[in-house]
Structure formats: structure tokens, C-alpha cells
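Researcher: I'm preparing a figure for a lab meeting and need a structural model of a single chain. I don't have an experimental structure, so a prediction will have to do for now. The sequence is pasted below. Please return the structure as C-alpha cells so I can convert it later.
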Amino acid sequence: MIRITGRIALDESEIEESFIRAGGPGGQNVNKVATAVQLRFDVRRSPSLPDDVRARLERLAGRRLTREGVLVIVAQRYRTQQRNREDALARLVELVRQAAAPPVPRRPTKPTAASRQRRLETKERHSRTKTLRRSRPDMD
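Model: Understood. Here is the structure written out cell by cell.
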């Protein structure tokens, strides 16, 4: 079990890892060894996630989420498979942890009297400027 928060833990069997060849610099090693990790986690079918967390995670995942609801994380920063595995898992845990935090509800506020006054004064000044630009001088 991978502990995310006090009430959320992911089962390792829900996470699927595959190893692919990484791009970028690295000499012959890049062409021979599959060090990059492609981590797949089925968000929509996961029994570990509550519905509200699932919805927020789908929104946070963005383009990393497939049409079927599978979250795909590719890690290829490091030259070793193990470090890339750890990196991919850490990124998944962080994403789920962000989704687990409920959004802070917005508290409606009213503008202060001073800010309303400043706004009106600015509008008045702007209006006067426009009016002065509109009036044409007499050509007598």
C-alpha cells in the first residue's frame, strides 16, 4: 500500500509500470537500455479513491489523462530505471495528494467605502479627460 493521506492509500496492484527507451543525451546507453518509466494508473476504476478526489484528480491530470480515464506519467529525468521509477511514483503521489486537498471555498466580500470612492473619482477624472478631447476649439 502506498500511503497518500490519512484516509487514502493506493494499492500497488493498481499501478502498472512499463519501461521504454528514453530520448535525449546519453550516448550508446540511450539506444540500448530502457531506462524511462511509463506509469499508468486507472483513475476512473480505482477503488482506493473517493468520488470527490477522483473528480479533482481528473481535472488536475489534464493532458496526462487518456479518454479511458488512465493517468499516464512518463519519467525519464535520470539515467537509471530505479530512480525514474521513484520519480514517477513520487509525481503520482503528489498529484493525488493535491487532488485530496479540498478546495477552499470562496468567501464573498464587498468593496470598502474608500475603494468605491477611489473608483468613482477615477471614473470622473477619465470622463473629464474624454469630454475635453471631444470639444473642438472655435476656428473664428
